[in-house]
Amino acid sequence: xxxxxxxxxxxxxxxxxxxxxxxxxxxxxxxxxxxxxxxxxxxxxxxxxxxxxxxxxxxxxxxxxxxxxxxxxxxxxxxxxxxxxxxxxxxxxxxxxxxxxxxxx
Length: 105
Fold this sequence. Notes:
mainly alpha
Protein backbone atom coordinates (compact mmCIF):
# COMPACT_ATOMS: atom_id res chain seq x y z
CA UNK A 1 0.00 0.00 0.00
CA UNK A 2 1.69 3.24 -1.06
CA UNK A 3 2.01 5.85 1.60
CA UNK A 4 1.91 3.62 4.69
CA UNK A 5 5.68 3.17 5.02
CA UNK A 6 5.33 -0.61 5.07
CA UNK A 7 6.22 -1.21 1.44
CA UNK A 8 9.57 -1.57 -0.24
CA UNK A 9 10.63 2.02 0.39
CA UNK A 10 10.04 4.88 2.77
CA UNK A 11 7.91 7.93 2.36
CA UNK A 12 9.51 11.29 1.82
CA UNK A 13 7.71 12.79 4.80
CA UNK A 14 10.22 15.57 5.34
CA UNK A 15 9.65 16.89 1.79
CA UNK A 16 5.88 16.70 1.90
CA UNK A 17 5.77 14.36 -1.10
CA UNK A 18 3.49 11.32 -1.03
CA UNK A 19 5.72 9.23 -3.24
CA UNK A 20 7.74 6.25 -2.17
CA UNK A 21 11.48 5.93 -2.53
CA UNK A 22 12.38 2.69 -4.31
CA UNK A 23 14.50 0.22 -2.37
CA UNK A 24 18.20 0.52 -3.16
CA UNK A 25 19.50 -2.87 -4.32
CA UNK A 26 23.03 -1.90 -3.20
CA UNK A 27 21.91 -1.01 0.33
CA UNK A 28 23.18 -3.03 3.30
CA UNK A 29 19.56 -3.36 4.40
CA UNK A 30 18.46 -5.05 1.17
CA UNK A 31 17.06 -8.54 1.44
CA UNK A 32 19.17 -11.50 0.37
CA UNK A 33 17.37 -13.91 -1.92
CA UNK A 34 18.48 -17.52 -1.89
CA UNK A 35 17.29 -19.79 -4.68
CA UNK A 36 14.88 -22.48 -3.50
CA UNK A 37 17.19 -25.35 -4.37
CA UNK A 38 20.28 -23.73 -2.78
CA UNK A 39 21.68 -24.71 0.59
CA UNK A 40 21.17 -21.89 3.14
CA UNK A 41 23.89 -23.29 5.45
CA UNK A 42 26.65 -20.94 4.19
CA UNK A 43 24.45 -17.92 4.91
CA UNK A 44 23.70 -19.29 8.36
CA UNK A 45 27.41 -19.82 8.95
CA UNK A 46 28.15 -16.22 7.91
CA UNK A 47 25.42 -14.93 10.22
CA UNK A 48 26.72 -17.08 13.08
CA UNK A 49 30.27 -15.81 12.50
CA UNK A 50 29.04 -12.19 12.42
CA UNK A 51 27.00 -12.64 15.60
CA UNK A 52 29.96 -14.33 17.27
CA UNK A 53 32.21 -11.40 16.35
CA UNK A 54 29.68 -8.88 17.68
CA UNK A 55 29.29 -10.87 20.91
CA UNK A 56 33.07 -10.89 21.31
CA UNK A 57 33.08 -7.09 20.92
CA UNK A 58 30.34 -6.78 23.52
CA UNK A 59 32.23 -9.08 25.89
CA UNK A 60 35.35 -6.93 25.49
CA UNK A 61 33.37 -3.76 26.18
CA UNK A 62 31.77 -5.32 29.26
CA UNK A 63 35.18 -6.41 30.56
CA UNK A 64 36.56 -2.91 30.03
CA UNK A 65 33.58 -1.34 31.81
CA UNK A 66 33.91 -3.74 34.74
CA UNK A 67 37.63 -2.98 35.09
CA UNK A 68 36.88 0.75 35.09
CA UNK A 69 34.18 0.33 37.71
CA UNK A 70 36.48 -1.81 39.85
CA UNK A 71 39.11 0.96 39.71
CA UNK A 72 36.72 3.42 41.35
CA UNK A 73 37.19 3.32 45.13
CA UNK A 74 34.08 2.66 47.17
CA UNK A 75 32.64 5.22 49.57
CA UNK A 76 34.12 3.57 52.67
CA UNK A 77 37.63 3.96 51.28
CA UNK A 78 36.98 7.58 50.34
CA UNK A 79 35.68 8.44 53.82
CA UNK A 80 38.68 6.69 55.35
CA UNK A 81 41.00 8.84 53.22
CA UNK A 82 39.11 12.00 54.21
CA UNK A 83 39.41 11.07 57.88
CA UNK A 84 43.13 10.43 57.51
CA UNK A 85 43.64 13.81 55.84
CA UNK A 86 41.70 15.55 58.63
CA UNK A 87 43.82 13.86 61.34
CA UNK A 88 47.06 14.76 59.52
CA UNK A 89 45.88 18.34 59.04
CA UNK A 90 45.10 18.67 62.74
CA UNK A 91 48.52 17.26 63.67
CA UNK A 92 50.14 19.76 61.30
CA UNK A 93 48.15 22.62 62.86
CA UNK A 94 49.33 21.62 66.36
CA UNK A 95 52.94 21.39 65.21
CA UNK A 96 52.76 24.83 63.56
CA UNK A 97 51.24 26.26 66.75
CA UNK A 98 54.12 24.78 68.81
CA UNK A 99 56.69 26.23 66.41
CA UNK A 100 55.09 29.68 66.62
CA UNK A 101 55.24 29.55 70.42
CA UNK A 102 58.89 28.52 70.27
CA UNK A 103 59.69 31.47 68.00
CA UNK A 104 57.94 33.92 70.34
CA UNK A 105 60.03 32.83 73.38
